[in-house]
Amino acid sequence: RLRVYCTDQANSCVPKAVRVAGAGEPVLVPTVPGAHVMDLAAQVDADLAAGLRPFAVVATVGTTSTGAVDPVTDLARHCRRYGLWLHLDGAHGAAFALSARGHDMREALGQADSLTFDPHKWLFQPYETGCVLVRDPELLKATFRMARHHLDTGYLHPAEARHGEVNFDDLGPQQSRGLRALKVWLSLKTFGAAAFRRAVEHGLHLSDHAAARIAAHPGLELTSTPSLAILTFRCRPTDGSADPATVDRLQQSVSDAVRATGQALVLTTRVRNRTVLRMCTINPATTPADIDATLELVLQTALAR
Ligand SMILES: Cc1ncc(COP(=O)(O)O)c(C=O)c1O
Question: Order of strands, edge to edge, in the sheet holding 131-134?
Fold first, then answer.
């Protein structure tokens, strides 16, 4: 009877987490056509009327496929109104808040009850450094604190006994753990936040550059505008074929062939139920010339099909 809401563009980790939490399957709220963002209106009312128990919304800040951003401020208002927990999946997109363009996102992220963020994505860290930030850390302690379990082994002492020291055992399900945060801390200390800001802005610039090239080329078609350094597009078949299955197969075969060259990774995804090519331009070592060369490779590969 518990209800968690997300869109069909949420990452597969969302249904997995909801299942593990014992809340069944998330309700897939339709997205606004063309925008891939959540339209929660009416859904919660209908569920309450049906005697169900809405309790959380998972909104995405930077969907995996197209980098779309759910309307966080609207959703936060809905959540406050209905007393729902708002979780933001910012695994990819939260880093955007570092950039000048992403300034407004800082306020949006601040409305979450919890936020996931993967420094191993747009903060360029080695796998893996996924983390969750929670507005009220006392809730974590109330859930995970070792002392909560009333075992009296006399061996491990609750954190309170250690002068306020942070004990990660008390903040999550994992007990023995490595110091994953060290690499994030070390690279921030070494390069400074400004270097990360510049690198994020570079990724945004590259996706704008790619979109302009695609829009200007008759052999290519943009299928979603760049959002958080992700964009999608397709090759137009050289024989003018408009058959959707043929056009979809072309994208897949171009992606496979480009990948096989080892020069670039342009994977496919689905947008409005069609196969499209997807570029994610966050590598700070990539240059505009690399983008041009990749698009040229895509075009030549499509020509050869
Ligand atoms: C929006 C989003 N959320 C979550 C994930 C899961 O990432 P990971 O398993 O690397 O933490 C991804 C991965 O692509 C993602 O794009």
Answer: 27-29, 2-7, 53-60, 85-89, 114-117, 131-134
